[in-house]
Amino acid sequence: MATQSKTQYLTDLQAYLKRRYKPKPEKAADRLTVIEAVVYGICHEDTTREQANQALSRFKDQFFDWNEVRVSPLAEVQETLAGIPDPASRALRIRRFLRQLFEKTYNFTLEQLTKKPLKEALKALQPFEAFTSDYVTATVVQQALGGHAIPIDESTRQAFENLGLSEPDVATLRGLIERAIPKNRGVEFIALLEDMAQDPTLAKDSKAPRWEHHGKAAHAPSSQPASSAKAVKPAKGDAKDAPSQPKEKEAAKPSKKAKDADKAAPPPPPAGKKAAPKEPPPPPANPKGKRGGGK
Predict the structure, then answer these.
(1) Which candidate, 107, 143, 105, places its Cα nearest to that of 124?
(2) Burial per residue of 185-210, b for 16 or more beta-carbon CB atoms within 10 angstroms, e otherwise
């Protein structure tokens, strides 16, 4: 059986997500300005698109321009992000970006970047702290610069991991998806991924396609290690032909006769010396009634 590629898996996943969420065809949204796309990306990361759209609309309705947002108290900017998780951190990032932009350009437009090649435009944006977020970078590419990008936040990455597809980081996962999903299906896939990330029941659905890595052959471990394997006993017919092998412990023990012989035997001569000749045995005892010695 051929191994399923990640590209084929993502294609199957998109078909499944379309059946699960049944997205309605939407009109092509107007392209955002670069500044709007930055603010939208900061608001949208790990939230829903409805929350991000509402926050961007409030910024446009409640402030005269982006310069007013720049000079407004942080608490006022934070109020505009009501209902979005972690509004204090997001407000700080938005105002910090606008202040960096003013210090660098003394205006509030970056539309000249839309006329430059994508790599050149991204190089000009890298000095801004907001672009340390891969999600914000991908949002600006997709929403303002007209490039092919599929923003992936931590919630989406976790949803993929629950389905078995795990990559080292968000940027690597995004690159994989962008290679698998063509630009003409990118907008639809982004919406489906957002629904997937906000759906806690997806991982429990047995019909959801799961990525299984088959690149390495799995070696089943043996039932018992070689060291613990039992010796095979010879069959009854082979027992007579098998040479007798005394046990190690029994072979190591000397017999009783050997012990007595060792005690009776004289100690071995020192090295380099000949053994002393043995003394002749003593004469037999005199018989009764005879005296020894005299004639």
Answers:
(1) 105
(2) ebebbbbbbbbbbeeeebeeeeebbe
**What is the per-residue pLDDT for 217?**
34
CB-facing half-sphere around the CA of 198: CA atoms within 13 A = 14
Closest of 127, 147, 129 to residue 138, by C-alpha: 147
> Which pLDDT does position 225 carry in this prediction?
40
Query: Token pair of 268, please?
Result: 């071995």
* 289 dihedral zone (left: phi>0; alpha: psi -120 to 50; beta): left
Residue 282 token pair:
């003593």
**CB-facing half-sphere around the CA of 127: CA atoms within 13 A:** 10
pLDDT, residue 212, reads: 81
Could you give the C-alpha distances from 259 to 140, 168, 247, 254, in angstroms and in order? Answer: 96, 73, 20, 7
pLDDT given for residue 117 in this prediction: 96
d(CA 51, CA 44): 7
Q: What is the pLDDT of residue 263?
A: 52
Tokens of 176: 């994989």
Apex 214 CA angle, 213 and 218, nearest 5: 115
Q: Which residue has the tokens 């191994």?
A: 3
pLDDT, mean of each 10-residue run, the chain (295 residues): 78 95 78 97 95 96 96 96 95 97 94 96 96 97 96 95 92 94 93 94 92 50 39 42 44 50 52 50 51 44
Amino acid of residue 249: K
Cα–Cα distance measured from residue 70 to residue 36, given in angstroms and rounded to the nearest whole number: 14
Task: With beta carbons less than 8 A apart as the criterion, state whether 102 and 108 touch.
Answer: yes
Whether 214 contacts 9, CB under 8 Å: no
Burial of 28 (0-12, 13-18, 19+ CB in 10 A): exposed
pTM of model > 0.85 = no
Three-state DSSP class for residue 280: coil
